[in-house]
Known about the structure:
Layout: H1 3-29, H2 34-77
Amino acid sequence: MKKKDLTFIIGISILAAVIWIVGELIMMKLHFPRHFYIIWRVFIVTATCAVSVRHAFSEEIQEKSDATEKFNRKSHRK
């Protein structure tokens, strides 16, 4: 695991926790029904996982294109 990946994971976890807590506090203040808390938790976890997976796929695509470019540069020199 690269340092950049670890930084991303920690950052997204902290951001999700802050958004989760703010959402919970707002729902408490506005006296939402109990099922909204469950929906909120599921939404935050799902959104966090989706962003993480999307980031992983985009990183993988970028690494493959970088490797392809490097291969093409080396093969054209010969």
